[in-house]
Design brief:
By secondary structure, this protein is α/β, with parallel strands linked by helices. Helices cover 39% and strands 17% of the residues. The chain has two domains: 2-14 and 84-205, Rossmann fold (3-Layer(aba) Sandwich), CATH 3.40.50.1000; 19-81, no CATH class. It has nine helices and eight strands. It has a six-stranded parallel beta sheet with strand order 5-4-1-6-7-8, with helices on both faces. Strands 2-3 form a two-stranded antiparallel ribbon. Helix 2 crosses helix 3. The longest helix is centred in the first third of the chain and has 16 residues, at 27-42.
Length: 208
Amino acid sequence: MKVVFFDIWWTLMDTKEDLFSFVSPNKEIQTKFKEQFSIEKSLLDSDNFKNVRELLGICEKKLEIKNTSPIENIYSDIYLNRIYLFDWVLDVLNELQDRWYSLLVVSDADSDILIPQLKTLWIYDYFSEIIVSSDVKSYKPWKKITEEIKKYISEDDEIYFIWDSIVDIQTWKSIWAKSILINLSDEIKNYSQDYTISDIKEVLNFLW
């Protein structure tokens, strides 16, 4: 079987506005919020899991940020109502299906946000499986989500993963997939990936 796993954010879709810009107009506070989010996430493990919405709420309280709307509401609004697909995504998904690839999603997301996103953008039905951290209670590259991924593949499969961040390559080094880094910024990024692309349509050059 030929399989492609997709990360979602900054791989297939993005938002028109940055969530952290709504936390505060102050750039310093935005930076502190991002840093706090990373800290809170790094403290978690499979026995102490919190989803994205919960992590955002924790950061809001610890930094004592006061908004007219709670960060959870801002989060839902931006990630449900202000999203868009990158160019060529539908073409690529259609072409990969025509080439008999099985398409799956692995995302560090909340399923009550991700699933409506995929449906809103009309790509939900392209994927045979959607593995979401909030359902598995595990973030990449934790072992629990890796074990969940392995349920849908075998060692005889031809497997690729399209991704954009270091946690993704850490996940895929633990299985036998070939990794495809999508590098939208054109920065030099060497994570020992098998392929690097700057546009999603470039995957069609080598996936047959």
